[in-house]
Amino acid sequence: MKNEPFLELVLCGLTAGEYAVELLSPVRLHQTFASPSGHKSIFFLNPAFANPQISEVSVRVQKGTIVKEFVIPLFVHKLTGQVRDFSGQPFPAYVWAVSNDLNSPQAMVRTDSEGHFTLWYPEGKALRVFIDDESYSRTTYECWIVAEELKDDIRLDPRVGDFELWGLHAWRTQLNWQLYFWPCSLPLDLRSKRSGWKLPHFPRLTKEEIAVRINGAESQIKGLHRVRVWAGEGKTHPVYLLELPLKEGDPCGPQLIQVEVSTATRGRGEAWYIVW
Q: Which residue from 71, 140, 225, 275 lies 20 to 30 Å from 179 (Cα-Cα)?
């Protein structure tokens, strides 16, 4: 796994044609590309972008005889914590912020030997982080940290186990919290592989096997629903939908939602969702 410091620029409202993009500061870099109409992400890789104190970048964009220059402010926050396993031991791992396009540069850091990490991440960009070690789904499943964006520095201490809550999402209605996740059990999936069964097992859960904490305070699960959702190519997959009572939180700070699954035979794991 290799992590190179990079700057991503997203150009919107493009018309079809050839473009030249020059980064004027903090370092001078240049790229050309052809684009259809719409938007385009381009990446500049340079060690200078490892500096979280960079507050702005200057960019020149040219298409034919049309030249425009921009000064773009940068707001960068940090996600910090200590990764442990469910026995409380430090868990050295990779902390990897992924996008849908895994061929693009990814923001990734490695914890120290005690599981401590710091990931710098730009404000305004959706956050999808998974945490696991080099075995990658052979002995443990990922712990996910998800947010629509980071608006401030966040500290949390994730735990890695053998159960994954994939796609965790949370939203508020006028009456309650709604939580959604796709359950994945490593013990069941390993059993499937040994038996030659090609389809993943759906781990059935009860309320008693799920704990939800919001900013550290445990919340009572009022509803637990198993539903099937579209999974692409004409397939569906079962997921869980949870309902929690809506409580007044800190209007000036984030809601750190921790969802933990603990079972006797299907594994144990957790995921986090950050709501502002």
A: 140
CA 145 – CA 48 distance, rounded (Å): 27
Query: What is the CB neighbour count within 10 angstroms for residue 5?
Result: 15
Helical H segments across 95-254, by residue range: 186-195
| Mean pLDDT in residue range 200-212 | 91
- 276 closest CA partner among 130, 171, 155: 171
Which residues contact residue 226 at a Cβ distance below 8 angstroms, ignoring those fewer than 6 apart?
Answer: 204, 238, 239, 240
Q: What is the pLDDT of residues 124-176, one digit of tens each?
A: 889 999 999 988 778 999 999 999 999 999 999 999 999 999 999 999 998 89
Domains of the chain: 6-73 (2.60.40), 77-275 (2.60.40.1120)
CA distance 214 to 250: 11
Query: What is the pTM (predicted TM-score) of this model?
Result: 0.89
Q: Which residues pair with 268 in a beta bridge?
A: 262
Pick the closest to residue 258 from 78, 81, 93 (CA basis). 81
CB distance 130 to 141 below 8 Å: no
Q: Which two tokens stand for residue 216?
A: 């550290």
Tell me: pLDDT of 250 over 60.
no
CA quadruple 51, 52, 53, 55: dihedral, nearest 10: 110
Q: How many CA atoms lie within 13 A of 27 on its CB side?
A: 13
